[in-house]
From TrEMBL:
Residues 226-369 are annotated as: Disordered. Keywords: Leucine-rich repeat, Phosphoprotein, Repeat, Ubl conjugation pathway. GO terms for cellular component: cytoplasm; nucleus. PANTHER family: LEUCINE-RICH REPEAT-CONTAINING PROTEIN 41, MUF1. It comes from Equus asinus (Donkey). Residues 313-344 have a biased composition (Low complexity). The keyword DNA-binding does not apply. Residues 348-362 have a biased composition (Basic residues). This is Leucine-rich repeat-containing protein 41.
Length: 773
């Protein structure tokens, strides 16, 4: 134990016997309190229980260690309940990544303890970043006990900013996920900020999270799986799925190109009189057919040199087409590819145009050269992609593959895998999903009965949203389906948001929490635009929505008026709804907004919390009063809704009168409504002696309130003597204009309520606002 050179603990104070360590309980509390700061983190952590028995808290010591060694400040939104656990968890991550030197501080070093093993039991959340740093170290034999401890303590596994990784790192990750998920306690996997996902790594994480497992080729067998898994060889399809091969599998763009070429070749074959001699259909001939027929060889097989091919490179000619498109679309997964190190990332393909020139015969030079021709051709054509045609190709290619066996698409053969424990929460934040990734996710979701919460945030689903809905419908039909929370947000959606909401509620009638947001309307993805394929007929419909179990519904709308009847149909079917949040919602008229509120009053009798954000309610004052008179709501939020933009002198007294007569409303949030000093003083009347209001939470942030108005508000509360009424939030008001008056006002308010405020520079904020006008 590292101690200062001039200080040694008397041996009678400590009882050390092998792994056991405790303080002498006979010591007085003051002596124990003086000893604790002198211990290193290993002994300090081990005597925690003894210190608690003596009525001593070590939280201040752990907090000081955090400030001095971690040198980061926790988020203001984070409530730290145990600084010991927080420090040890962060310490484990730093040691694992090599970002902290334990020998640099005496409080961290002790040759009798292993930093990873000693802190592993406190780790509830582990983050793996970049090129999978730490995965190889954790599965190494010297760290076996560390991994065993993590398997029982770790609950959340996060991946951030992943980059391309080699085969060895993926094999280590495979073993790590198998230990932590299949034989451990991890129940949540989250992926963050992966702009260019590596298909191999992404599909590996998905399949392992879903509970499917096969040891990689050449990898050691799992000692926890028993003899059954050791003697079982991986199937061909599953080995391809779990990416044990060192060759990367074909990307979705390549398969889409092959399917499209096969479809086009079939249509051209019907129009030409030249007969094609029949040939035996094999994997090789099927592959060759995708690179031949109906195109100009100079255009397709001799394009300009790209970044991965030097100018002047000669290509061998290809073989003639000899098979049907049906065989082509089902056998493309067997084609050969260049090594991963030289393969560029594919881009979505544009529509293929008919090449000018004559169709020439080609001599066959070998399957290796032909597969390279197809590979280069796919990515050269991909470089000419136009954004406006991306979705159309995806629909054509995917449509050609509909109804195929999953193994034909490179998807998992689920029945061929060993199924283990799977996670219950999956979160994908800013991870663009290619067609291949989306198909894999949907295929896994259809039988992922242990999944309880799914978050898909800004994944660029596009038309793949229809496949997602089909898989969710299939999952809902499974016995034992536990999915109860779905969070879905994206920039665009091929369906209007209300149609999408109706489709989700129909597909998942047992869902409890639904959060859905679409930022921008998209004409390209809008089925109503001529030329765009509409959604499948079973996705949308005019039939009524069956009764569902929704308890919480959050919707964020793009700009544009929303049809109130569609929203009302969802609300009518959600009789158990307790919380509703509408963000950026626009209705054609105040009457439509009133229709929604009337529906809430008649059909949603269990509704307790109602929130409106970024809505123009200046012309809906009568509807607002209608809400404030509702005796079932306990919390109402009007955030940046322009409530007092019109007729404030008449509307404020009416609003206060409605609130004074409402005895069930507990919380009112009015941030960003330009309440001002006059409005704040009017609201003070809600707490007068003749009021029956039971309001205990008030949020008046961002309301242009000045210090003198706040001081007068505090004096009125004191005069009426209502006592403590709960929480008062004052963020981002103009309290910096007179700091002395503001401090006096807050001091008076704290005698009646809990005040939460901040130091906000209103002048700088106003300058920033003007600069953006």
């Amino acid at each position: 134990m590292c101690m200062p050179p001039k200080f040694r603990l008397p041996t009678m104070w400590l009882k050390i016997s092998g792994p056991e360590f405790e303080l002498d309980l006979a010591l007085p509390g003051p002596i124990l309190q003086s000893i604790l700061p002198l211990l290193n983190i290993y002994y300090l952590e081990r005597i925690e229980e003894t210190a608690l028995k003596k009525g001593l808290s070590t939280q201040a010591i752990w907090r000081r260690l955090w400030d001095e060694l971690m040198k980061t400040r926790p988020s203001s939104l984070e409530s730290v309940t145990c600084w010991r656990a927080k420090f040890m968890e962060a310490f484990f991550s730093h040691v694992l990544r090599g970002t902290i030197d334990v020998s640099s501080d005496r409080r961290l070093c002790d040759q009798r303890f292993s930093p990873l093993l000693h802190s592993s039991r406190h780790v509830r959340q582990l983050t793996i970043c970049n090129m999978l740093q730490g995965a190889t170290e954790l599965v190494a034999e010297p760290n076996r006990r560390v991994l065993e401890t993590l398997a029982s303590s770790l609950h959340t596994l996060k991946f951030r900013h992943l980059l391309f990784s080699d085969v060895a790192a993926q094999q280590s990750l495979r073993q790590l996920l198998h230990q932590l998920i299949h034989h451990g306690a991890v129940n949540q996997v989250s992926l963050y900020s992966w702009p260019v996902p590596e298909s191999a790594l992404f599909i590996l994480i998905l399949t392992m999270s879903a509970g499917f497992w096969q040891p990689g080729p050449g990898g050691p067998p799992c000692r926890l799986c028993g003899e059954a898994s050791r003697g079982r060889a991986p199937s061909r399809d599953e080995g391809s799925l779990l990416l044990g091969s060192r060759r990367p599998r074909r990307d979705a763009a390549e398969r889409c190109a092959a399917a499209l070429m096969a479809s086009r070749r079939k249509s051209e074959a019907k129009q030409t009189a030249r007969a094609v001699p029949p040939t035996r259909v094999t994997r090789r001939s099927t592959q060759e057919s995708l690179t031949a027929g109906g195109t100009d060889p100079k255009r397709e097989l001799h394009p300009p040199a790209t970044s991965h091919e030097a100018p002047g490179t000669k290509r061998p000619p290809s073989a003639p087409a000899t098979t049907s498109s049906a065989s082509a679309s089902s056998s493309t997964s067997s084609s050969k590819r260049a090594p991963a190190s030289s393969a560029p990332q594919p881009k979505p393909l544009k529509r293929f145009k008919r090449a000018a020139g004559k169709k020439g015969t080609r001599t066959r030079q070998g399957s290796g050269a032909e597969s390279e021709d197809l590979y280069d051709f796919v990515f050269i054509v991909a470089g000419e992609k136009e954004d406006g045609e991306e979705m159309e190709i995806g629909e054509v290619a995917c449509g050609a593959l509909d109804g195929s066996d999953p193994s034909c698409l490179g998807l998992p053969a689920l029945e061929a895998s060993q199924r283990f424990r799977s996670i219950s929460t999956l979160e994908l934040f800013t991870v663009p999903l290619s067609t291949e990734a989306a198909l894999t996710l949907c295929h896994l979701l259809s039988s992922w009965v242990s999944l309880e919460s799914l978050t898909l945030s800004y994944n660029g689903l596009g038309s793949n949203i229809f496949r997602l809905l089909d898989s969710l419908r299939a999952l809902s039909a499974q016995a034992g389906c536990r999915l109860r929370a779905l969070h879905l947000s994206d920039l665009f959606s091929p369906l209007p948001i209300l149609e999408l909401t109706r489709a989700i509620v129909r597909a998942l009638p047992l869902l409890r929490v639904l959060s859905i947001r679409v930022d921008h309307p998209s004409q390209r993805d809008n089925p109503a635009v001529p030329g765009n394929a509409g959604p499948p007929s079973h996705i949308i419909g005019d039939e009524e929505i069956p009764e569902n179990c929704l308890e919480q519904l959050e919707m964020g709308f793009p700009r544009g008026a929303q049809p109130a009847p569609l929203l009302c149909s969802v609300l009518k079917a959600s009789g158990s709804l307790q919380q509703l949040s509408l963000d950026s919602t626009t209705f054609a008229s105040p009457q439509d907004f009133g229709l929604v509120l009337q529906t809430l009053k008649e059909y949603n009798l269990a509704l307790k919390r109602l929130s409106f954000h970024d809505m123009n309610l200046a012309d809906c004052q009568s509807e607002v009063l209608f809400l404030l008179q509702n005796l079932t709501l306990q919390e109402i939020t009007f955030s940046f809704c322009r409530l007092f933009e019109k007729r404030p002198a008449q509307f404020l007294p009416e609003m206060v009168a409605a609130m004074k007569g409402n005895s069930t409303l507990k919380g009112l949030r009015l941030p960003g409504n330009r309440l001002g000093n006059a409005g704040l003083l009017a609201l003070a009347d809600v707490f007068s002696e003749d009021s029956s209001s039971s309001l205990c939470q008030l949020d008046i942030s961002s309301n242009c309130i000045k210090p003198d108005g706040l001081l007068e508000f505090a004096k009125r509360l004191e005069r009426w003597g209502r006592g403590a009424f709960g929480h008062l939030r004052l963020f981002q008001n103009w309290l910096d204009q007179d700091a002395v008056t503001a401090r006096e006002a807050i001091r008076r308010l704290r005698a009646t309520c809990h005040v939460v405020s901040d130091s906000w520079d209103s002048s700088q904020a106003f300058a920033d606002y003007v600069s953006t006008m």
